[in-house]
Amino acid sequence: MSDTFTVHVPTEGKLTPKDFQTDQDVRWCPGCGDYSILKQVHTVLPQLNIPKEDIVFISGIGCSSRFPYYTETFGMHSIHGRATAIASGLKATRPELSVWVVTGDGDALSIGGNHFIHLMRRNFDINVLLFNNEIYGLTKGQYSPTSPQHKVTKSTPYGSVDHPFNPIALAIGADATFVARSMDRDPAHLQQMLMRAYKHKGTSFLEIYQNCNIYNDGAFELFTEKATKKSNDLFMVHGQPLVFGENDEKGIRLDGFTPEVVTLSHGFTKDDLMIHDQHDMNKAMILSRLYDMQAEGGHFPKPFGVFYVRERTTYEEEMNEQIDEVVGKSGKGDLDKLLRGRETWIVE
Q: What is d(CA 145, CA 137) in angstroms, rounded to the nearest whole number?
């Protein structure tokens, strides 16, 4: 990959997806899910109706982190696990910018895990796209923090003994204000989630299931293939009952705080089902763990869509209000005076 790329003068009038494509050859493995995600992002960006120079993509290290090279906006290919920290600094000093973090399950949840949880709790107005392929792709197939237990990889030839992270549950637990999940092979749904993430004021966390066809091919096949998708995917819609199945014949019912799968033709109606409330943290946490639970007679479906949303003042708003208040009381600061401190000593 070239170390430089041409910056085009922004086009006049309405932008198109083509305006967000750079002159760089997109280099991922043929068949990689990143191609689809890139296309959906380029499709959504013109709909934001903001100038290209007001959009910034910041990435860490990994296959997903090539994104800034392939998107005709400002951007930075930063260092492993630190994209969230760099994005926080940018948003703090330039709050008017639309800042996007592109990261992977290894980049964000291993070396970058500490930065990740603190970005969630601080609530900068930043959009985080986490490409989850449950493997380290760029470094050739080692297990990652989201790899299933007993996963055989190059670094775990006898199977991983690690218990994996649940990114959705982790984000909710870290007090994120927007948490959602989509997948690379559902373009319409991914575009919808990208737009929802952008419109949220605060840190938006969007986990995207992304197939690594070289080192972890088919990891999400159950949820992406036509033959199995409807029976295994639960698409959550705020205010609507949780239904799934080939003909929406199944649903999720709550028995107290315990979810169960029911068949609507067997003595249950939609009125008996759990209604999705994206503002209810308790229900969101239940849904974040749903697929991990064992259902009577089978398994639970995998939820997709918005798990949780809440309104909370952003970090940069609080910070700038504090700065204005202090400047109003004490005037502008003097850096030299600050560095000298309040006490001095004379050494004779």
A: 13
Q: Which of 136, 108, 275, 113 is nearest to 206 (CA)?
A: 108
CA 313 → CA 48, 125, 201, 206, 290, distances in Å? 22, 9, 8, 20, 30
- Contacts by 73-77 with C-beta closer than 8 Å and gap 24+? 73/20, 73/45
What one-character-per-residue DSSP string does 283-338 give? HHHHHHTGGGSEETTEEPPEEEEEEEE-----HHHHHHHHHHHHHHHH-S--HHHH
Q: Is the per-residue pLDDT at 296 higher than 80?
A: no
pLDDT tens column, 177-229: 999 999 999 999 999 999 999 999 999 999 999 999 999 999 999 999 999 99
- Percent above pLDDT 90 for the chain: 88
Could you identify the residue written with the tokens 């398994």?
299
The pLDDT tens digits of the residues spanning 103-156 come to 999 999 999 999 999 999 999 999 999 999 999 999 999 999 999 999 999 999
What pLDDT shows up at residue 3? 42
Q: Which two tokens stand for residue 11?
A: 């086009």
Q: What is the Cα 286 distance to its own chain's centre?
A: 19
Buried b (16+ CB within 10 A) or exposed e, 197-208: bbebebbbbbbb
Q: Which CATH superfamily is domain 17-224 in?
A: Thiamin diphosphate (ThDP)-binding fold, Pyr/PP domains (3.40.50.970)
